[in-house]
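Blinded run. Sample ID left blank on purpose so nobody reads anything into the name before looking at the predicted structure. Input follows.
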Amino acid sequence: MEVNVRSVKDTASDTVEKLEPRDESLDRVKRHAGRVREDLRELGRAAGDAGREKIGDARDAARELYDRGLTRAVETRDGVERTLRSHPFRSVAIAAAGGAALGVLLTGWLSRRGGRRGDDA
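Blinded prediction complete.
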């Protein structure tokens, strides 16, 4: 079997010519994949930034609600203290009446349960 150098050379040239367009396509695909990867990174950064901003907004709103609630609680406490100090006998009478009413309610509730304590059966 005789090997023809010219035939091998022509076959090699044909093969290279056929592969070159594929190499260009592969390069295009690689470039496109690189752009897609960068776009995804940028999208991830943007989503992270947006998430951090929303968390910051929620934290600020929660802090504001807490501060308002604390202010209202302090104002209410101060108002109750002023009322108790300005009307001490009335305050004691109201507390006694409330305690008596609670006692009556609890007594009625316990009697309906049959006086059982701690029995679940």
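Unblinding after everyone has recorded impressions. The chain has a mean pLDDT of 83.
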